[in-house]
Design goal:
This protein is of the alpha/beta class. It has helices spanning about 15-25, 40-50, 55-60, 75-85, 100-110, 140-150, 165-175, 175-195, 200-220, 225-230, 235-245, 250-270, and strands spanning about 5-10, 30-35, 50-55, 65-70, 90-95, 115-120, 130-135, 155-160. The chain contains twelve helices and eight strands. Helix 5 (about 100-110) links the parallel strand 5 and strand 6 (about 115-120).
């Protein structure tokens, strides 16, 4: 089976990790093109992956099966309008720009366009990402399969039927690496206050986080039941968990995640249509 021809508009970190994942899964580098205005980014992409990189978005995307818009939300409109006149009936637009709705992209590229919104997260850089995907009605089953292949190459990918769920995914996984890293940062600080050497403390925190994620992935228990299973009554863990609960950790997370959803929606409203 011939690989889909894929063009990345924007050669930043997310494009690089997606390319790396695709090549690791056997996708042909000859089927991948990248466009970026930055010569340093182009050279880096070419040297790392032996794919074609150029500065002209229109030339790069000519006849591509899949065009991935890996650009900032504030520049997506300009880029999409530039590409619109040459889009073919088989072309699929995939946007990873946070907060930009399908309705807005349609205004840029036309009502007949096949469009997928993707919300990946930064662990995709180490091929352990999580990506939420939404397709408009124009997207064919074969195109959905091709898109899922791209994002599954860098971790876990799932589809949602309601576009509003992409904003929720932004809060649940898109922004979530920062939540966990903030927890790491706080634990590291307290561990040093408790007298542990800095390197030792950080090593313990990272390995515990890794092991806990692996435990949760491999267990058939519900998360709340698994947490109770590792919390001995009257023990040290119960004391720590009680302190979190008494301090209102659930309400704090609720506010943080709903604020992330709100900001994703605001980004959409901020963009011209």
């Amino acid at each position: 089976m011939t690989d889909s021809s894929i063009t990345f508009i924007g050669g930043g970190n997310m494009a690089a990790c997606l390319i790396e994942g695709l090549l690791a899964k056997g996708h042909s580098p000859q089927s991948i093109r990248v466009s970026d205005i930055n010569s340093g980014a182009r050279k880096k992409i070419e040297n790392m992956f032996q794919v074609t990189a150029m500065s002209d978005n229109v030339v790069a995307s000519k006849d591509a099966d899949i065009i991935i818009l890996a650009v900032k939300p504030q520049t997506l409109g300009e880029v999409a309008k530039e590409l619109a006149p040459q889009l073919r009936s088989h072309s699929l637009i995939v946007s990873i720009a946070a907060g930009i709705s399908v309705r807005q992209i349609v205004r840029y590229v036309g009502k007949s366009a096949s469009i997928v919104r993707a919300m990946p997260n930064t662990p995709a850089v180490v091929l352990s990402g999580a990506t939420g995907l939404y397709a408009n009605p124009k997207v064919l089953p074969s195109q959905k399969t091709a898109v899922e292949k791209i994002f599954s190459a860098v971790g876990y990918a799932c589809w949602v039927e309601d576009e509003s769920h992409i904003d929720a995914i932004t809060a649940v996984s898109g922004s979530a690496p920062a939540y966990f890293l903030l927890i790491f940062e706080t634990m590291h600080c307290v561990a040093r206050e408790l007298g542990l050497p800095e390197t030792l403390a950080l090593g313990l925190i990272k390995q515990t986080a890794y092991g806990t994620a692996k435990l949760a992935q491999s267990s058939s228990l519900a998360i709340d039941e698994l947490r109770r299973q590792v919390t001995s009554p009257g023990g040290t863990t119960e004391a720590a968990v009680k302190a979190f609960q008494d301090g209102g950790i659930e309400d704090l997370f609720r506010k943080a995640m709903t604020d992330a959803v709100k900001r994703s929606q605001e980004i959409s409203f901020d963009q011209p249509v």
